[in-house]
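Quick entry between incubations.
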Amino acid sequence: MSQLGPHADVQQVPGRDDLKQRLEARIQRLERAAGNGLWSMVLFLVISFFAFDGFAILPDLSDDVRRMLGKPPPGEMISLALVVYAFSCIVRTLARMSHNIKPYAGLMHAAFFTAFYTFYQLSGVLQDNFWAVFFAGLSVMGLDNYYLWAHSNHALSKERALLESMRRGGEEEGEVKQAGTGAKKGGR
Amino acid sequence: MLNSINSRAIVPVACAVTGFVIACCVLLYTFVKDDLIKGEIQHAADLSDTIIKSTRYAMLHDDRETLSNIISSIGEQNLVEHVRIFNKKGLIMFSPDSEELNQFIDKSAAGCTECHAGPEPKPSLGTMAKARQYTNSDGNDVLAITAPFYNEPECSNAACHFHEAGQSLLGTLDIGVSQDPLKQTLGQLQNRMIMFSGMVLILTVGAVCSLLYRQVFLPIKQLADFTEESSGDSLGDEFPEVSGEIARLANAFQKMTKRVRELEHRLLHEESEASPPDTLP
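Done. Structure below.
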């Protein structure tokens, strides 16, 4: 009987290790992607925290800067843009969900909702419209994050199952080969 | 739990509808509030115009007693927080509050800065720019309007007291009205909107969720249980109480199971017939 381990005689199929490594890398990437949405949500919540008291932490804009920026847009226009943006984002995410298209995982929504806070602040109506931006952001980003999480989890379970089946296949193949070599040795 | 078909169908819709309805309600409230405030400003501007027109005759005749009586009567109104007329220099000439008579108004005070912000005062202002909102020393929210008395030919030509023809502004009326009724209306509006939004959310999210659960998810769960039972030894006599497409699916599955069983039986029968009988030694 050989003193080596049970898999010593296993001859790996060419490319199997490579495929396994790629699968593991993909699993890691998916795990990271599932958590990425949370970062944009956290960023949005932190910005909302500062926006709640009208960005009091930031210094007031000087008259020169205000003059340079020009007249701020009216509050009604910003609100209209907010409704259109939130509505189109929700419709787009629901459409992605229904067609099973890869979800969006980035900071774009957080940046856009920060821009809405900023425009409201410059127009002097942030206090009245804070909760509108907050709930619109929460629903859009919540929906996006939920889809990202569900999509990543689904893909992760598939990848893990594939990896598991590869491992099982490798072990079974090893056992078969080991049994084969044992039979040959016994035959001699 | 979040991977189940229930949560995959209900959570996104509930999340999207709830957030969007709340955001839209907040925006709608802001729009209505802005419109009400604009209406209130217009109302106060109309009131100031009425006062200017009412006092015109007394001013032309330099009837200070009548003018003082008019201003005192207006000041007695419940919702009028203050009313005063001051001259071009900012000296208060008429007011129901005797303490502020003959006092100078600071040009840097709220309500004056709109015109006196630059080196040259602005000749005229729009209705919205004439208005200012503030909280007075009693803690009441006040909407105030400043309306100018412009020079007219009748004023400069009057025999009683003479204004130079080149003098464009003779004085200013400043009137402040309480915003309590507006605040009360906005409070009622807020409560009603919260109530209606809640009802809309309960109806849409609740009704959709319960209908989906009763009509889709529960039959699917029953069907899943039925198929799991049927795939075992027993055929699953308790056929789930479902209707429509799910009933068709259940029927099809039941027929398929029966057929598979029949084929299995036939195969076993053929195998037993084909194998040679055991012979006794």
